[in-house]
Design brief:
By secondary structure, the chain is α/β, with parallel strands linked by helices. Helix 8 runs antiparallel to helix 9. It is globular.
Amino acid sequence: MGRIPDPRALVRRKGFPFIAPPVPASVALPVRRPRVGVDFDTAWAREPGARVVRAALHATVVEATVRVMADPTVLGVDRLDGLDRDTPVIFVANHFSHADTPLLLRRLPRPWRDRLFVGAAADYFFPNRVAGFAAALGLNAIPIERTKVNRRSADAAAALIDDGWSMLIFPEGGRSPDGWGQPFRGGAAYLASRCGVPVVPVHLAGTERILPKGASFPRRASTTITIGSPLHLGPKEDARKVAARLEQAVATLADEATTDWWQARRRAHAGTTPSLEGPELVAWRRAWERTAAERRRPTGRRWPNV
């Protein structure tokens, strides 16, 4: 029998285009960057196959986890009745925990949650291909530069909104380190003004007890999602002023969650709504004030509905 040729030797003999062409030593080759971070491609996650897998995952594993661990109460859904159901919106929410995203992905009202993508921190959720794949498939997340308004991130988000997708974004840019809120950044405000879509403020209460920043294992706790009235922004509004307006809207919802609708509206009208960022005190006093606020919050049911 004849000798079987080595395929690698055959390729080397054939040369280009089977292998890369030789490059003169005097020519500097461009550095190929790995497609991670803001460069991670997530378009495949909105193809039919990926959407079916994600829907099955959310309806089973994520839904069961949300019911058992968070036992959520959702308030204010009726405030969206005046919106066109075919119009995409941008949901902006405070950010306490990694539990925030799956909770909202299962409890935001339809039809928006059926076509919803998440703006996720590029450096945290897309540091490598494995983590990026999990974030894109499981959360339908796209990478967002959280330290500044990045044109590539903004263009990708705006294109999806223009295509009819709604967006969930946490304008604080990261989870709270101590249970109090952080200043809202301008990314969500910029997108809302650019795309001309309604912005819906959302306040989450209780998720900081489930999986706060630094915790290794989740704990069960009752949670409350309060949905606010849509805000319609002008195309030329200043992003910093819009960010402050969004933060104030979420702060009013936080006040409503700990008191009632009437008291929260009275304080909002008087300009005395408690800040999401908490009192400017030393760390132990901020923690004490946070504990006092938790005691004032309605505890809800002890066990989930089944």
